[in-house]
Design a protein that fits this description.
The protein is of the alpha/beta class and 218 residues long. Helices cover 26% and strands 28% of the residues. It is built from six helices and eleven strands. The strands form two sheets. Strands 3-2-1-4-5-6 form a six-stranded parallel β-sheet, sandwiched between helices. A five-stranded antiparallel β-sheet has the order 7-8-11-9-10.
Length: 218
């Protein structure tokens, strides 16, 4: 997979290192020339100096043929503009963007070209796995005031839930199916709905772990 990571701070550096270790082709860019210079020899990625909000810089980094662009700078406005540019101008299939200020989280959606928002408080490993599609079940969001987690699990040809109705799947206690996304569109989770490969199931739970959800569907 070809990945462009914009923002070579702690988060961007770590994401690039993990992706390289997983044998992905990675370009890491940052407008701070000294920061890029410091990373030479530390990250086995293509290192580029430039502003991710500049189309020519993103194109030089490989955005036109990238499978994923991760915008991980410390500025939300930069992350939104660069994410929108990656999605609208270069038609990148998956765009992930870091949310630095929780008050701006509502902006990080597909209207701004963001497929995956990376909240600053979320576990790094889960963020990377979700962004790269390296796992089938991930915790997407923690609603602390409500005391619940939003968990996503993707149905594949190998999933035990494929071809079964929602009513036939034993869910962990305190867990409900919020929606089933099929073909990019949310579907009402009727009990008789048959799950198909390619479906993404969003669940809300106050107690179940990712492992428990994985066991039920995968």
């Amino acid at each position: 997979m070809k990945v462009v990571v914009a923002g070579a701070g702690r988060l961007g550096k770590k994401i690039a290192q993990v992706l390289v270790a997983a044998h992905h082709q990675v370009a890491l860019l940052d407008r701070n020339e000294e920061r890029i210079a410091e990373l030479r020899g530390q990250v086995a990625a293509e290192l580029i100096t430039g502003d991710a909000c500049e189309p020519t810089v993103l194109e030089h980094a490989g955005a036109r043929t990238a499978d994923l662009v991760v915008i991980a700078t410390g500025q939300d406005d930069t992350n939104l503009v660069a994410g929108l540019l990656a999605k609208r101008h270069f038609s990148v299939p998956r765009v992930a963007a870091r949310v630095n200020d929780d008050e701006n989280a509502w902006l990080f959606d597909r209207h701004w070209g963001v497929d995956i928002a990376l909240p600053s408080a979320s576990p790094l490993v889960s963020l990377i796995e979700e962004a790269t599609g390296a796992t089938d079940t991930v915790a997407l969001l923690r609603l602390s005031k409500a005391g619940v987690d939003v968990i996503e699990t993707a149905i594949t040809d190998r999933s035990r839930a494929a071809g079964r109705s929602l009513s036939d799947i034993p869910l962990p206690a305190g867990t409900i199916v919020a929606t089933v996304i099929r073909g990019g569109q949310p579907t009402a989770p009727a009990p008789e709905l048959l799950l198909e490969p390619g479906d993404e199931v969003l669940l809300v739970s106050h107690a179940a772990s990712e492992r428990a959800i994985h066991a039920a569907f995968q």
